[in-house]
Amino acid sequence: MEVMRMAISGTQRGKLISAGYTSLSSLSSVSPSLLAKDLNISEVEALEILKAASHSSRLDTSGGDHAILTGAQNAWEMLHEDSCVRITTSSADVDDILGGGISCKEVTEIGGIPGIGKTQFGIQLAINVQIPAHFGGLGGKAIYVDTEGSFMVERTLQIAEGCIEDMEKDKHFRQRDIRAVKEKLLPKDFLANIFHFRICSYTELIAMINHLDKWVSEHRDVKLVVIDSVTFYFRQDFEDMALRTRILGEMALKLMKLAKKFNLAVVLLNQAATKCAEGLYQLTLALGDSWSHASTNRIILFWKGEERCAYIDKSASLPSASAPYSITSEGIRNSITNCKRIRMM
Amino acid sequence: MKPSTLLDAHNQTITTQKLTLSCPILDRFLSGGIPCKSITEIVAESGSGKTQLCLQLLLSAQLPASLGGFSASSLYLYTEFPFPDRRLRQLSHSFADSYNTHIGSLSYDPLDKVLVQAVHDAHHLFDVLLKLDSFLVRRNSTQWPIKLIVIDSIAAIFRSDFDNTPSDLKRRLSFFFKISGKLRALAEKFGLAVVISNQVVDFVGNNDGINGLRIGNLPCLYTSGRRVCAALGLSWANCVNTRLFISKSEEVIGEGSGFVEEDGKFSVGMRTRRHIHVVFAPHLPPSSCEFTILREGVSGLESRDHLVANSSRQ
């Protein structure tokens, strides 16, 4: 019953229902005096009810069916909304622990020590987001915000070639289809769909993030934003740590909003740092404890013996797990040494 | 704000400009050479050839583009004294000899194109970098712009001035990021190749500690039979794009080994073998390459080990 959601008191609601006014439309044409007579209340009170009714119906036309606030949804609706779109990492094992890949609408942080493959993940995702829909991809474009200068065009080209090769190998597609599609897939086109921004100071980075909303709204097909790395400029020039925390917090909120609004994935690459606690040095991701709230998902990359491993450190929906991966000349792939050794923790 | 395009007007991919090392084998190892707009670090113990490589690069930068150079001069910031001027002179002679057809004029002296600046401490280095911006703007309008900055070595200025206390470590860390940030900005603005040499420290303690942390492709770094790690720690490792490591090993060569020197005599005694490894790089696979230091400079060796090491990693 629609009257249940109107912002009126319980007695008023009871009177409305017992008088037969159950829907908003039944209140739309009634006059205050008539309503006052029907409900046996004062005309002022009746006017208030009508105001509340018209307010509710206005919300209804702009938002969903049962929204209390514009744009709000309940959990049921969110669950049934076109099930979360994900970007594959090209390693089946890592995809498995991630529930299919890096999810859209969320902020995912990937961190680890130098040389573990953060940038490789960034480039791989920027390529994989472009996998066309008939190959099970998103067919989107990517923004690559590069603060460290590690983005290499030649490497991107290699990874794009590897990705195309993989798509052609995919057995789900018949030979004929592949040929038809093959002509469209060129590594160069993959490069053309990556918007590369080279950032040289933290003010530039903040300006860039503020500008992203406008930029993405003009380029709706962008489905991924990679920031490589979010850390670099925040580890210099900051005497005032409280200021840094505020700036980072604001930045994180903007990125989350962006991810939600445009249904895209935001991937933040973070560096590892040592933390000095009670005289002991521990390895952790940079930017401090308050930053760990900034991302919905946090993946830590580390060496496990001779193998590279990805570990889900934080996620709202996924269990903690780790999976090995390797970096080949074609990009991120499953670890060769073991195919099935995913350990649930 | 506009994104930079990865394709040029003719729809060709824009490849990163690379600086040759004046040796085809080493160039192939680095897939073309030292990349521009990026920081390349060479980690090695003393006497393994990092300064030799740096000096060779200073000269290579002067080569024309057809030979993999930039037709540019270079800036050498040195922190370890004295400046190796005799070696640089020696290299420049053989450089002028081997490339005289390309350089042409007889009055050309490669040493004129090498700018040298001593750096005494971290503050001094940062000051120099701050001044470089306006200097490069002026310089790059001339015939020989600067396209290469070499810092040899970064460790020397940081290993002395700072204590091992949390506050000093924090001060040091902020310096790392300031210096690296400035260098990266300069590299991007002027299209520079930046090469930084770094020392090693001995590895002490067990494998589990923070010092035993594996960074990059090699589980641990060994040189001259000692286990080492790069100086300046994890935070500095975040400040460079590519890290190369030179390992050195002594090998006993007896008469029976059948190793013949160029002059036809059997060599007896010790021979130093040097290998350069990719520790991490955004664009290079894990690999290594042996090289030797000759009178004329550093030169790579085509070795069977290298091929075996590569295939076993696949």
Automatic annotation (TrEMBL), chain A:
In terms of one coarse class, where is the protein primarily found? nucleus
Q: Which GO terms describe its molecular function?
A: ATP binding; ATP-dependent DNA damage sensor activity; crossover junction DNA endonuclease activity; four-way junction DNA binding
Q: Which domain of life is it from?
A: Eukaryota
List residues of the RecA family profile domain: 83-272
* Keyword annotations: ATP-binding, DNA damage, DNA recombination, DNA repair, DNA-binding, Nucleotide-binding, Nucleus
Q: Does the keyword DNA repair apply?
A: yes
Q: What function is annotated for this protein? A: Involved in the homologous recombination repair (HRR) pathway of double-stranded DNA breaks arising during DNA replication or induced by DNA-damaging agents.
Q: What is this protein called?
A: DNA repair protein RAD51 homolog 3
UniProtKB/TrEMBL annotation, chain B:
> Which Gene Ontology MF annotations are present?
ATP binding; ATP-dependent DNA damage sensor activity; four-way junction DNA binding
Q: Where are the transmembrane segments?
A: none
Gene Ontology cellular component list = Rad51C-XRCC3 complex; replication fork
Q: Where is the RecA family profile domain?
A: 15-200
- InterPro entries for the chain: DNA_recomb/repair_RecA-like, P-loop_NTPase, Rad51_C, RecA_ATP-bd, XRCC3-like_C
Location of this chain's protein in the cell: Nucleus
Annotated GO biological processes are:
double-strand break repair via synthesis-dependent strand annealing; resolution of mitotic recombination intermediates; t-circle formation; telomere maintenance via recombination
Query: Where is this protein primarily located?
Result: nucleus
The alphabetical list of record keywords is: ATP-binding, DNA damage, DNA repair, Nucleotide-binding, Nucleus
The signal peptide, as residue positions, is none
Please identify the protein, giving its name as recorded. DNA repair protein XRCC3 homolog
What is the native source organism of this protein?
Answer: Spinacia oleracea (Spinach)
The coding gene here is LOC110797411
